[in-house]
Specification:
This protein has 28 helices and 28 strands. It has about 800 residues and is α+β, with helices and mostly antiparallel strands. Belongs to the peptidase M1 family.
């Protein structure tokens, strides 16, 4: 899954690990036969289901419960009526179990508008209705009765009745579609393989469908009708990427994807993507309304390959309990970058990852919300709180370090045996590490504990011919396998050339370096970015890094130099001006599109958020001049123009932007946001752009222009749409609107609104889906603050009964803002 979707609803008990273990030891589920009636969603809000569960009890006469967070209308166990008065907390008690049992539960769910497992959406442009489901971690119980835990896997057979104008997608190809005498059509789907309840799916609506046959697979793409022009624009690349990914993973994992059908459904108002077996659901905000930049296309490729990797790691072989949930996500993230580098045009994907996402992992890991990658998960709610940059980003980085430690060939051989030995079953982390250890000949118990069971980031410092390693908790530092790149200036002094590489495997706090070439201008620690650590080099190397990072010959090395400068800024070791000078210097000559966009984003953040208020206009001018220059290069024109739109400072900048925006709606919206932030709101221009923009979500872009205005009434209007009406689609539309709202230079105006944000916490934490908790809390975290906000945020985070996701968001956000305030002076 990309971004967490789940629930945090009060009044419903979260399954505990102890309960799951007891139920898992007691039961074996043979199959689910689930009849879903979606006709009530065409004009209303009710989904109806009848779930028939065939299961065995290993201790006849015992009792347990089945999960169902819906209105239970009728239930029988082995033909005997169940007293519905016993249903409580989303659970139906089951008593007097036989050795073999058949449970039938009919239920109805009317909560189909909050994003908790099911979402019914009305397209604002044509009023067509679409419905999607997404069940990780335990939201299948909201749609129908099931034993909603990952280790009770079983085949699922769906029959779905839907409106006659709707197309239904599920985990496989339908075997029949028949008109019904009482209205609608009945879609019948075949048995799935044995699957966990969280990776099954039913989507429905008047989808636009595209299909291709590729290498023995039937590939499908679906979207709402109002976005079909964008899907058709991107379809060739999506089909190519899907075919390439299936081929790459099938070969490298030692077994092809075992069914012909592989669908991808782009749906409205979803905060990410979900790895349903054979039928991935995506946020349709990735169907970009203007031609996507290289970076946007690379992001789509990364998500596509991430969800695909889950078909093997997560769906075929599933973690037994959610304490190993991180491993699913870390592996899929690692595998997506690995596949992008080896099977697509995005060969600089590791550099892109370092310059962008990896920094978010370091950010969380250096703050008070840091936690071990592997931790105790007493119930499912806590599992969902751990969907953060530690899970995805640090986890991915640590797996990359594992590959470096044991060797890629051994790692792949270990994966092949892991998938072969555990197909359609459940595992723990030890099963994977045993397979990799046996393939590599390395004993990995100590390595596993050091990397997965301790929080925080180690620091590696070059001191003469030694590497000094320290751990943040004062304990023994982890073992690090990494490289030191040795660079000297070339003959004309303009470039840096590699003159050697030192391979280092640290043990303890001091590790001597063998073969380190002397007299270099730059010793670059962690070259090729093999480990997860803060790195510091000698003083001469630091000056070279800051002044000449752009002269490094490789995009990954340049990304490492810039990310090191960013880490030093966050820790108060470098001024914003010095950091900005480094990244702008690199951008002046950067040619890899894989790092241009994250470098531009980093530079913008440094200029407008991390700079002292008095310096912001000057810093934005510096950035705007670099962006205007980059815009002359066709390979970088679009991201450079977008950055220029955020930093434009004079008439020449706006003249360049206005000319480029004449036929580019996305850029035109960005220019209007910038003008509005500068006090130049133009209502007529907003209305004209709304008229010309075919995007069904264009109203959100118009709200972004309002949000940027330095006026109390404008902020209030947008705040009501976000928090009171909940009218903003989750994911990138909300994040874009939040970026327009929180303008750091509007500090005095925004301070009361930062406290309004904290006022909303209890409302968000108390109900709805993780779409609300995740998107609203993370997306709307202020980018400016004062000391009273920081103190209050920490107090709210530490409340004993605080929602774990809210706690982590407030702790990380307030820690970052404290660092920002120190940098501003």
């Amino acid at each position: 899954m990309t971004m967490a979707l789940g629930h945090a609803t009060s009044g419903v008990r979260s399954l505990t690990r102890e309960e799951a273990e007891e139920r898992g030891a007691l039961l074996a589920v043979d199959r689910y036969d689930i009849a879903v009636d979606m006709r009530g969603l065409f004009e209303g809000e009710v989904l109806e289901s009848t779930s028939t569960i065939t299961f065995r009890c290993l201790e006849p006469g015992a009792s347990t419960f089945v999960d169902c967070v819906a209105e239970v209308r009728h239930a029988t166990l082995n033909g005997q009526e169940i007293d519905l008065g016993t249903v409580k907390d989303g659970r139906i008690p089951l008593t007097g179990l036989a050795a073999e049992n058949v449970l039938v539960v009919s239920a109805a769910q009317s909560d189909t508008g909050s994003g908790a497992g099911i979402l019914r959406t009305i397209d604002p442009s044509d009023k067509l209705v679409y419905v999607w489901t997404s069940f990780e971690a335990d939201d299948a119980r909201r749609a129908w009765a099931c034993f909603d835990q990952p280790d009770l896997k079983a085949p699922h057979r769906f029959t779905v009745t839907a409106h006659e104008t709707w197309t239904v997608t599920s985990n496989g190809a339908p075997t029949s579609v028949e008109d019904q005498a009482d209205g609608g059509r009945l879609w019948t789907f075949p048995d799935t393989p044995p699957l966990s309840t969280y990776v099954v799916v039913v989507n429905a609506g008047p989808f636009h469908e595209l299909r291709q046959e590729r290498d023995g697979h039937s590939l499908g793409l679906y979207c709402r009708q109002s976005l079909k022009q964008y899907l058709e624009r991107d379809a060739a690349e999506l089909f190519d990427m899907t075919a390439a990914g299936l081929a790459f993973f099938g070969e490298r994992f030692g077994q092809p994807f075992p069914q012909a059908r592989y669908d991808q459904v782009f749906v409205p108002n979803m905060g990410g993507a979900m790895e349903n077996w054979g039928c991935v659901t995506w946020t349709d905000s990735v169907l970009f309304r203007s031609p996507p930049t290289y970076g946007q296309r690379e992001t789509v490729a990364s998500v596509l390959l991430h969800e695909m990797a889950h078909m093997w790691f997560g769906d075929l072989v599933t973690m037994q309990w959610w304490d190993d949930l991180w491993l699913n996500e870390a592996f899929a993230s690692w595998a997506s970058t690995w596949a992008a580098v080896n099977a697509t045009e995005y060969t600089d994907a590791w550099a892109t990852f370092l310059a962008g996402l990896k920094l978010s992992g370091y950010q969380v890991d250096m703050g008070p919300a840091s936690h071990p990658i592997r931790g105790e998960v007493p119930d499912v709610t806590q599992a969902m709180a751990n969907f953060d940059a530690i899970t995805y980003v640090k986890g991915q980085s640590v797996l990359k370090q594992l590959v470096a430690y044991v060797g890629e060939d051994a790692f792949v051989e270990g994966l092949r045996s892991y998938f072969r030995d555990h197909a359609w079953g459940n595992t723990r982390l030890a099963d994977l590490m045993t397979a990799v250890g046996e393939a590599s000949g390395r004993e990995l118990t100590g390595w596993t504990e050091a990397w997965f069971d301790r929080a925080g980031t180690d620091t590696l410092v070059l001191a003469g011919t030694e590497v000094l390693a320290t751990a943040p908790d004062g304990g023994e530092p982890r073992p690090h396998h990494f490289e030191i790149g040795v660079y000297r200036r070339d003959a004309d002094g303009a470039g840096l050339e590699a003159v050697g590489t030192a391979h280092v495997e640290t043990v303890g706090t001091r590790t001597p370096i063998e073969g380190l070439v002397e007299g270099a201008d730059l010793y670059l620690l962690n070259d090729r970015d093999l480990t997860f650590a803060a790195v510091r080099t000698d003083e001469r190397s630091l000056r070279t890094l800051l002044d000449s990072a752009g002269a490094l010959p490789d995009a990954l090395s340049r990304a490492l130099a810039v990310s090191t400068a960013w880490d030093m800024l966050q820790k108060g070791e470098l001024s914003t001006d010095e950091m900005l000078g480094c990244v702008l210097g690199v951008l002046g000559s950067e040619r890899s599109p894989g790092v241009v966009e994250p470098f531009l984003a980093m530079a913008l953040k440094a200029a407008e958020q991390w700079s002292p208020a008095v310096a912001v206009p000057t810093q934005l001018v510096r950035l705007a001049e670099v962006a205007a220059h980059l815009a002359e290069d066709p390979d970088h024109r679009d991201p450079a123009l977008r950055t220029l739109a955020a930093s434009a400072s004079d008439a020449a900048h706006f003249a360049l932007l206005d000319a480029a925006a004449a036929d580019n709606n996305d850029l035109a919206w960005r220019v209007l946001v910038r003008r509005a932030a500068l006090g130049e709101y133009d209502a007529t221009a907003v209305e004209a752009l709304l008229e010309r923009d075919p995007d069904p979500d264009a109203r959100v872009r118009a709200l972004g222009v309002t949000a940027a205005r330095p006026e109390e009434s404008a902020k209030a209007e947008v705040w009501s749409e976000i928090w009171d009406k909940r009218s903003i689609p989750a994911g990138s539309p909300l994040y874009g609107l939040a970026q327009a709202f929180w303008r750091p230079v509007q500090h005095d105006l925004l301070l009361p609104w930062t406290h309004r944000y904290l006022d909303e916490v209890d409302k968000v934490a108390g109900g709805g889906g993780m779409l609300a908790v995740g998107s609203l809390m993370r997306g709307m975290m202020p980018t400016t603050a004062d000391q009273s906000f920081l103190e209050r945020a920490r107090e709210i985070a530490q409340q004993p009964d605080q929602n774990p996701t809210v706690r982590a968001t407030l702790l990380t956000g307030s820690d970052t803002l404290a660092r920002v305030l120190r940098a501003r002076g």
